[in-house]
Write a structure and sequence with these properties.
Layout lengths: L21 E4 L10 E2 L7 E4 L2 E4 L1 E5 L7 E8 L6 E9 L4 H13 L4 H4 L4 E7 L3 E7 L5 E6 L2 E2 L5 E2 L6 E6 L5 E4 L15 E2 L2 E4 L2
Parallel strand pairs: 6-15
Antiparallel strand pairs: 1-16, 2-5, 3-4, 4-14, 5-13, 6-9, 6-14, 7-8, 7-13, 9-10, 10-11, 10-12
Length: 204
């Protein structure tokens, strides 16, 4: 497979719309920031800034707290780098989860509920593709997916509960770049209300 390369190019901006009465920053008092979380990701995953490679589940370090959010995954490499990766959201994970998952893997295949991908969908991609993920939590909670700007309506996930984090499930040999900054998005979000993921903290 090809090596990782950056392919970020800003094309558009989407305005964020939120009803939260909070201050917004790149890092909150708990040290959370817009980056992939080493502690919540599989030990078989390699994280280098926004770039993620290896095998298994990887989560961002902040939850989706606003009513509607959008982010992108840029697939690095060339068209020879292909595979079906899983995109979406996941609940918080820790080292104990991955140890238990390893034991389950030794016993046989695990289910999506067991491997943390119940709120994720497999999307075939090649190097140069852009996968957009749009999450709404008001009214009818939903996770929507877009491939190179085209909505994948059949893959939409409805009615999820609890706190969720941006996530991806990788296969060996494919490197991706997590893009939370709207200036680096390659496609438009599906609607103006889907703004960039933010780190929010309550007003003291």
């Amino acid at each position: 497979m090809g090596s990782c390369c950056s392919c970020c190019r800003g094309r558009s901006k989407a305005s964020a719309e939120t009803e939260m009465t909070s201050k917004v920053s790149r890092k909150d008092d708990g040290g959370r920031n817009l980056a992939m979380a080493r502690k919540m990701s599989s030990p078989k995953v390699q994280i280098d800034g926004p770039k993620v490679s290896g095998v298994g589940l990887a989560l961002a370090g902040v939850p989706v707290e606003q009513d509607a959010a959008y982010w992108e995954w840029h697939i690095d490499g060339s068209e020879d780098d292909s595979g079906a990766l899983k995109f979406g959201v996941a609940t918080k994970k820790d080292g104990k989860f991955y140890k238990a998952l390893e034991i389950q893997a030794d016993d046989g295949d695990s289910t999506p509920e067991e491997d943390g991908t119940a709120l994720m969908k497999a999307i075939p991609v090649v190097g140069g593709d852009t996968v957009g993920v749009a999450v709404q939590q008001s009214d009818l909670p939903m996770v929507q997916f877009l491939l190179n700007g085209e909505p994948l309506h059949d893959l939409a996930i409805n009615r999820f509960r609890g706190t969720v984090y941006p996530s991806i499930f990788l296969k060996d040999g494919i490197c991706v770049t997590a893009v939370f900054d709207e200036d680096s998005w390659q496609e438009m979000s599906p609607h103006a209300r889907f703004g960039p993921l933010i780190v929010a903290r309550g007003i003291i």
